[in-house]
Design goal:
single chain, 4 helices, five-stranded mixed sheet, Beta Polymerase, domain 2, elongated, two-stranded parallel sheet, 189 residues, alpha/beta
């Protein structure tokens, strides 16, 4: 088994392999202590292809793709986070981050589905729940919410509706909200 290179070594290799790429190591102070590589969206797909195809890396599997809403940052932005593994070399995870320019009108990132097919449904979920538009995704449409839904429920500024007209079995706080909208009819006199 080949020992995985350190994050600084991987960063240098990527910068040499993909000229002009802007890459930053992002520390993680959580108990997992898994730092990641923030890569610029412009070179995202080229970096992904290099990580997959280079014989020293062979990151052939994207196991998890998730979204993050950084509302409290100035300016706010959204991220897509990819956890990569090399099944062939038994190493990983390598965590990549792609960041949007903001949270409103510049929310496009390159789709990594052309590189790792396992990203397809997960990028659709991020599109649906966070609103990131994945450029060149083969089937970018809602996957959890219905087509007419106009918001992104995992965003931190999402306002939950107080009318659950489609809730088939309202309970607890949902039932209380429903009662406010649909008060019980007064008993006939």
């Amino acid at each position: 088994m080949i020992t995985m290179q350190t994050l600084p070594e991987i960063k240098v290799r990527l910068e040499n392999a993909v000229p002009g790429a802007r890459i930053e190591i992002v520390a993680n102070d959580s108990p997992a202590n898994q730092p990641s590589l923030l890569i610029d969206a412009e070179h995202g797909r080229a970096i992904a292809q290099f990580l997959r195809d280079d014989p020293e890396f062979k990151f052939d599997y994207a196991s998890n793709v998730t979204g993050i809403d950084w509302l409290g940052k100035t300016p706010g932005y959204l991220e897509a986070v990819y956890h990569l593994y090399s099944v062939a070399l038994r190493q990983g995870p390598l965590i990549l981050r792609l960041r949007t320019e903001n949270r409103s009108d510049k929310v496009t990132l390159p789709s990594l589905t052309p590189v790792w097919r396992s990203c397809e449904l997960q990028e659709r979920e991020i599109f649906d729940l966070y609103g990131i538009i994945f450029d060149e995704h083969p089937d970018l449409r809602r996957i959890l919410m219905w087509d007419g839904f106009v918001d992104h429920p995992m965003r931190k500024d999402y306002v939950e509706p107080d009318d659950y007209e489609y809730e088939p079995t309202p309970h607890d706080d949902v039932l209380e909200k429903a009662r406010l909208h649909y008060p019980a009819k007064e008993a006939a006199v």
